[in-house]
Each structure stands twice: as structure tokens, then as C-alpha cells.
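the two lines:
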Amino acid sequence: MTTASPKLRIQEVALHYDDGQTRALDGVSLEVAPGEFVAIVGPSGSGKSSLLNVIGTLEQPTAGQVYLDGKAYSEIRDASLFRRENIGFVFQSFNLIPTLTALENVVVPTVGGSGRVAAHRSRAQALLAQLGLGARMGHLPGKLSGGERQRVAIARALINNPRMILADEPTGSLDSANAEQVLDILKGVIKQQGLAMIMVTHDAKVSAHADRIIHMRDGRIEQEGGT
Amino acid sequence: MTLLEFAISNLRRRAARSGLTMSAIALGIAAVVALTSIAWGFEASWQKANDARGTDLIVTRVASENTMPTPFREERVRQVLAAMPHVHEVVGLLSEMLTVSEDAPPVFVFGWVYGSYLWDHLKLQQGHWPREPMEDGVVIGSIAAETLHKKVGDFIEIEGKRFAVIGLFESSAVVENGALIMTLDQAQLITDKPGKVNVLNIKLDTTASEAEVQAIKERVKRELPGYVAITSGELVRKNAVVRISKAMSNATILIAGLVGALVVFNTMLMSINERTKEIGILLALGWQRATVMKLVFSEAVVLSLLGGAAGILVGIGIAWGLEHVELMRGKIDPVFSVPFCFAVLGLSVLLGICGGIYPALKAARMQPSAALRYE
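prediction for all of em together
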């Protein structure tokens, strides 16, 4: 699906290592519309995670350009600040900090940033309540179920009002019931807020939830289509 | 949640390691506090003793740097000094560290000129002062009375001669409270140093200006070769024991500083290595590298600050304990001050910063994509 004003536009992106000997990405182009959920599938080493890293500004492409809401990544002066303000990450293994409560984990991305601590805390409380964790805010991750932990991670991804969600196998550590619930939440959020979501997954059941599936192989988009 | 709260949470997560690191820092700081307070206290107590006596200048042998300067024949020197302008009184003083009881540590025994101004600052608690230059009696300081278990009316044998304890006194200087005082004539007799003193104390009249004091110093240098006129502060600073104890205290500060910084460095580096993935997550979530550095520094500084605070308390305890050990009673008077405690806390923070520099840089330089893959 291509729109006149895509949320995310990727143009001929390449990511090479070892003086071009290793080509993690090789001329990838893609557009994602506001509110669209794109699943990226493919075998190991196909470039899925590399693409997610480039979109997430965790790695700089060797060639090509990425735009989010029309802003070129090459113009970004502070990638950290850009990530904080624009991108929400959801990881497979939740990656919560074990000694912090659910509420504290949600506010972690705001630490050291601008804004009042109390305001961040209120927003985190509202997000957790919205995700059905109102009664679990004071619990440590070890005391939460897998589904609850991933909902905490989703709240953490949303705390800074991102424009885009990047999810790397977010349901990989969950049973099917919890996986369905997490996917429903994510889909609801992006539709409601007009965010773009790109999700890397191996699971065909998960990718079936996406608006579009991108198949990757050898650093290239092999096939693209709706679900 | 603030950065500091997050740092404290990280330290609590590794409570045993944090506790061990803080203990190591505390021990180093305790050694610094105890030794420094004793070294300064040693200097201060001798200066206080000299100042309390009202002495303006002290004349001693040029090369002598002992706690009790080398004895010299006083008569000629005293006559020359007495003839100088503004000199109101010149009195000799003889002192020795002597064992006066087999079951007690040695004490200072001072011989002061009978009836001189040196006695004026002491407060007599019981008994009386010597009534004649050759009286076979000693007055005893309050601490010496406790350590020697003596009271007025008892007898003390000093260098084979029996002396009656004729008085009990209190002084503002701990060195004097731990001492026995007799007349100079008696002290010279029992130590077999007739006509000799360790120092000559000069009391000037009240009209002497700084320039005139300096002129007296110059005249002593010129007219009494081998002798020097100095203030009590200069005498104490010249003292070899004071200089050695200060040098030891400075060496301890250096060693404790290095060890403390290394301990913090090791702890923080281990912590950073273990938290590679977590730091990758923080960077991926939008933490700036400067924020990651601040987090690591905060942890290092909190560790060293808490260790430093505990070390100050332990150091004060050690110095207090040493002050009350029988052997040391009446000889040291540890000095603690609020600025000193703040300076030690500052040293602790410096240790934390120095020890945290490399781990903080290492953490901040991590590539988030690589750190996220770290298992």
C-alpha cells in the first residue's frame, strides 16, 4: 500500500559491513502510511533486524535515505533525542529493568529528559491503567506474567508519544492468548493515534494481523503484499 | 523517577557488591580521618600548650627538631635575651618523657621556673603549687592523675627520687593535663642536667610590635649563634614528630585515594559489563550518551559518598578510641572540624568521579544495536 503522504519512506537503503563484503541491506525501499501495520518476515540473516535498526536510527545506512513525516534521517543531529521523541521500541524479551516497578519501567525513557517528573508519572499511570495494569503498577517485572510484562513494555514505548512503533518479535515469548491480546492492543493504539508500526516476526499467525507483509531475503525485499 | 533514584536502585540491585565497595572506601577514608586528625591534633595540642602559657617567643637550638628540643646551658643565653628591648620575662623549661610507674605508660614531666608566668594559666583543682624552688613535690594533670591512679597526698617515684603529689591541676592543653610538673631546679636535679633547659620562653611586653618581634629574632640569630628565636607555631611545625605524622597522613591520603578510586573503578566496570544489554536498551529508548554517563557517575559518586560518610564516622571513632587508650591518653588531642569533614567528603566524591570516568565513557560509547544483541 502506497499513499500520497506516507508516515515513513525508505529509499534505496543499503547497509554494508566489511567494506561492502557483507550486505545486510541492499537497496530497500518501502513506504508506510499513518496507522498502517507492516509485518516484516524472512529467514534469519535476511536483513529484517538490520532494517528495523536503520528505521530506529540505531544504525546509519551506508546509502539511501529514510524519512519520517517528511524529515530526512540525514538531517537528524541527535539520534538519541530523535528516538526518544519519535520512536517506541517493543522487544521480544520485554527488556524491562528487573529492579524497577512496572510504573518505573514505563517512565525510564523520560529519565534525564525534559518535562516534569510528576507529569511523566501521571502519563505512565494512565497508560498502564489503559492497558489493564492499573492494579499492577507497583509490581516488579518478576511478579508479572509474560503478557503483563509485554503490556508494560508497550506502555513504555508509548510514554513519549511516538510517531512510530518498532516491534521485534513482540509476541515471541508469549502464549497464543497473550500474543493475541498484545497484538490487539498494538493495533488499537496505532489505528487510534495514527502511528506507523513495523513488526519483525517469524510467526505467520502474527503477520496475518498486519495490513501488509514484507518478505525479505538477502537484504532485499523479495515480496510485498496484503494479508 | 529521577536519574539519582535510578542510580540508587541500580546500587541496591547489587547490594552485596555495593556494600563491599562502600566498606573498602570507608576503611580508606577512616584511615585518612584518624591519621590526619591525630597528626593535626598532635600539632595543635603542642601549640595550644605553648600558647596557653602566654609565651611570645621560644629560643631553642637551631638544629633541634625533637618534640623536646636538645637541652642547653641557659644562663648566658638568658642574660643576653633579658637585655633585649621589650623582653619582659625569660624563663627556662625542661621536659622529659619518663616512666614513673611500672603499670602505667610514660608521661611528660615538665620542670618550670618556680614562680614564673608559665604557671599562671593552670587551674588548681586540689592541693597547692610548689612553695619554694627546691620543693620535693609535683603537681599532677587531671589525665595523668587518672592514668597513674594518683591523687593529692600520694607519692610518685621519679628517676629514683620520691615526690609528693602536692596539687592537681587542669589545663586547656591536653598535653599538660597528661603531665607532671615540678620546679625547674628539681627537674634539672633528677635528670642530671644542672643549669640546662630545652627551651627558653620569652614573654614580651604588650607594646612590642610585629617589627620589633622580628628584630628580636634577628638579634638572636646574630648575637647567639646556634640558637633561634621562633614562635610556638614555628617550633611545633619544626618538630620532627609533627612533620613525620603529617607526612604519614599525607601518604595515607594518597594511598587511600588510589585504592578508593581503583575499587570504584573495578565495581563500576564490572557493573557496566554486566549491564551491557540494559545500557543498550536505555540508548535504544532514547537515552542520550551524556545521560548514560551521568547515571554511571551518579552510581560511582553515591557509592563513594556513602562510603566516605561511613569512613568519617569510623575514623572519628578510631581517633576517639586511640585518644582514650592508656598509652596515648594526654598525648594526642585529635582535631575534627566541619570543613575537614566536608573536605574528606569532597575527596570521596573525587574518588567516585575518578573511578567512574572510564566505566562511564565505556557505557556511553556502546553501540545500542550491538549492546541489544549482547547476551
